[in-house]
Fold each of these.
Amino acid sequence: MKQILYERLIQYILENQDRFYRVAYSYTRHQEDALDAVQSAVCKALEAHEKIKNADAIKTWFYKILINECLTVLKKRGKVVLTADTVEQEVYYEKGYD
C-alpha cells in the first residue's frame, strides 16, 4: 500500500510541477525563490511520504508543504510581499509630499 502511495505521489509531482511553480511564484514573486520552494517541498514530500494515509489527500497534503516552504523561503530571504493596498498607500504618500 505504501509503495502505491509513493508511486502516486511521484506521478502527481511530475504531472503538476508547472502548477507548483506558479503557486510558489505567486507567494515569492521571485523566480529563484519559487524554484527553491518547489524543490524543498518535493524533497520534503518524498521524505515524508509514509505519513500519507489517503491517496485522495495527496493534493492537499502536498500544497500544504509547498505553501509552508514558500513562507519559509520568504522568512529566510527577509523579503516583504507587497500587496496592491501597500502599493496604493505608497503612491498616496508620495503624492502628498509634492
Amino acid sequence: MKMTKSALSKQRGGENATVRLGAPWRGRKIIVSLLAVGMAAVAGCGGGNTGPHTMSGNRIFEQNRPATVMIYAEFSASPKLVRPVLTDSAIKKLVDKVVTEESRGTIGTDTASFDNAAVEELSANIFDYFTPSNDPGDFLLEPKGFTQSFIGSGFIVTADGYVITNAHVAAPGDDVLKDGFSVPFAQEVAAYELNAWFKVMNDLTDKTLKDFSAAFAEYAYKKMDMGKTAASFTAVLGVAASGGDTANKGIRLDLVMAGDPAYVGSQKDVAIFKMEGKNNLPTVDIGDDTALQTGDHLYVLGYPKVATINDFLKPGQTFEPSFTTGQVSGKKTMQGGWSAIQTDASITHGNSGGPVFNDKGQVIGIATFGSIDEQGNEIQGFNFLVPTSILKEYLQKAGVKPGESQTTKLYSLGLDAYDGGHYKIAVTYFTQADNLFAGDEEILSWKQNSAQKVQSGADSTPFFYCWINACPSGS
C-alpha cells in the first residue's frame, strides 16, 4: 500500500509523530559525537599508542630509571714477593763503588756520607744488586689480602635479571688490577724493607730514605706475583639509600660472559651478568643503532662516580642516577673492524656500561670510553658507545632474549595515565607494578604522587575512559 506523508503521520499518531520518529536517531548522533570527542581526548594521553614514539627527555629518564643499575665490583688478591737478597758479590760491588767515590772525593769520608752514598747507589740500580731468594717459597712478608673496588653502570634486559654492562667493568684485565694492588703492596713491603735493612743506620737523610722507598716499591711491583684474583659483583637498583638499606639493594650478580675491554683485543667491550632468584624486574627496550644519523639526540643514564660518590656531597643521601644529553657526532671504525658511535654527551668514570637512549627511549648503545690528552686528562665531547648491534651478538651467544617485563609494561601505562591527568588509573597501574616488583622506590613514589592527586581532586579521568582504552583490572 502506498503511504503518503499524511498517512504516515496518522499511522504514527499525527504530525507530532514525525518528530518522535526522528528522536532516536538524534540521540544516537549525540552518543556518537560524545564517543568521537572522547576518542580525541584520550588519543593524546597514551591510550592509543601502539609502538615506539618520540618521548621527552624527562619521560625517557623516568621510564628507564628503575631498570638502570649501579654495579659495584670488588676484586681481591694476595700478592707475594720472593724475598730479595744481596749476594756477597753484590755487596762487594756496592762497597767498591762507594769506596771509589770516596777516594775521588765525590763524597765525604765520614760514616754518614758513606752510608747515604751506599743506599743512594743501591736505590739507583736496585735491579743490579737485589736478586730473588733461591727458595721460591721464601716470601718477604706473609701473603696478605688486598682489595680494590670500582663502580659502573648497567641495565636490565629481561624480567628474570640479565644485566648488560661493559667488559671492563666485569673483567678489567690483569694489568689494570695489578696497578691497583701493587701500590699498597709495594708501599708496605718497602716500609718493611727500610726497617729491616736500615734500622741501625740512623744517619740516613730523609731524601735517601725516600729514594730507597720509591726504588724498592718499583722492584716490588715488577717482581710481585699477584696470584689468583677473586671478584664479586653487586647491583643496586633504582634509588638506593647511602649507608642504609632497601629491599632491592645489594643483589648479587654472576658473570655470564665478557668480551674484551676497550683497550685490548677486538674491543667489543660487552659483558652479561645474571641476577639470581629475581623475577618481574623492570627492563629497558633494546633499539636499532643502524637507524642513527649524525645530529640525532642521545640520552645517557648512569652512575658517574664524581656525581654519585663524592666527598663534597652530603653523606647519607640516596645514590641516584645522573642523566646527560648530547648528539651523535659520527661513527668511527675500531681496530676490531666494527663501528663505535661517537657522541658529545658527557660520560665519565662510573658511566661505563650504562644505557644510552634514542629519542624513543630505546637503548641504542652502551657508554664505554672517552678520550684523554697527552697528560692523561679526560677530554669531554669525544666519547664513544658500543652499539646495540654488537650487544645483540653477545645476547645471541648467551641465549638471552631481551623483552619488556610485565612490571615495566604496567609502570609505563601508569606514566601514560599520569601524564594524561588520569590519576585514578595511574594508581591502579602503579599498584599492580608494585605488587609484581615490591620495594622499588620509583614505582612507590609515582604511586604515592598519583594517590595524592586523586585526594586533591585533580583527577580528570572521563567516565568513558575504559570504553576506549585497555584499563587495568579492577578499574
Amino acid sequence: MNYYGRLKDLREDNDIKQSRIAEILQTSQQQISKWETGVQMMGVDKYIKLAEFYNVSLDYLLGVIDTPRNLK
C-alpha cells in the first residue's frame, strides 16, 4: 500500500471526515484531499500529529509495515 492510501484508510476506518482531520492538522479539507490522493506530500510534523491521534507508529502510517503498532 502506498503511504497516501494509508492516510485515507485510517481516516475512513475510524469514521472520521476530512474536515475533522483538517481541524486537527490546522489546515483545509482541500489540503487533506491532496494528501490522501498523493497530489502533494505531507510534512513530517503532520505525520507525527496523525500518528499520535490514531495511536499508530510512523512506519505503519507511512506504509512501511502492514501491521499497526501502537505508539504507547
